[in-house]
Amino acid sequence: MSATDAIDRLSDWQTALRAEIKAPGTVTLYADGVTRYLRWCAERDQLPMSRAALNLWIAGLLDAGAAPGTARIRQLAVRRFAAWLTAGGEIPADPFPGVKAPRVEPPLVEPLTDDELRALVKTCTVPEGSTAAVETLHHRRDEAIIRLMFETAIRSGEVVDLQLDDLDLLGRLITIRRGKGGRGRIVPIGQATTEALLAYLGEREEHPLAGTADLWLGSRGKRFGREGLARSPRRRAKRAGVHGFRPHRLRHTAAHRWLAAGGSESGLMAIAGWTRTDMLVRYTRARASERAAAEARRLDLGAL
Length: 304
Hints:
There is one protein chain. The protein is mostly helical and 304 residues long. Helix content is 57%, strand content 3%. The longest helix has 21 residues, at 24-44.
């Protein structure tokens, strides 16, 4: 199969991924990786369904400075595409069995401290005497999002996809209808997060899109999407003096705080939406020794 022929099959493959209930972000990521590979093959007159071509492309990405994680996900996308072509009988056999993915060392992500979290939340305080409805909406929205993320370990994409009907503020529950892998779950929230959401909803009622189903709304009559979630908390982190901030650090922070407070690993896996223990270790290893030391002092097993 030539690169041109393979490119012609991309649209049907994306449809198949959606039919498997893959998350929209996953479909986009896979399609982008395969498109890049096929274009590279076309430019160099390489046959895409060959191990040599795939290995040469991945090696080139790494040599050019691409992160191993980026190379890994793009290679995975190509392999998934090839497996789909094989299952459909469009190529005689999977060309990539046993191809090893680039080794990735997950970065050590430090959770935010309680002082850093307080500083973040403080930037969301509505200034006294403020009459700008849009500004107040932004403050209320961002506080609700920040509190929700550092309390529940909810993923950024899950935050953005929340609908009004997903909130049960009387029961203090949030329904995530479609998490990673298409799995849904229900997560509890505390008093502070509930109050922040109620304050935001009060401001939301005056928004031009108040009648829509989306929970989060932006400025100028627009929805608040992934780009907004990437930008707004970063601006607040800069204002709060929190360095190296990404919204995803709030998920690491929530995981650490859960275990540090004595929460169970199984409970954390349930609210975070993890099905494998290696994910729990990955998200909480930065402060694992600190938590172990605190637990050892509490247990005091040397006292006989």
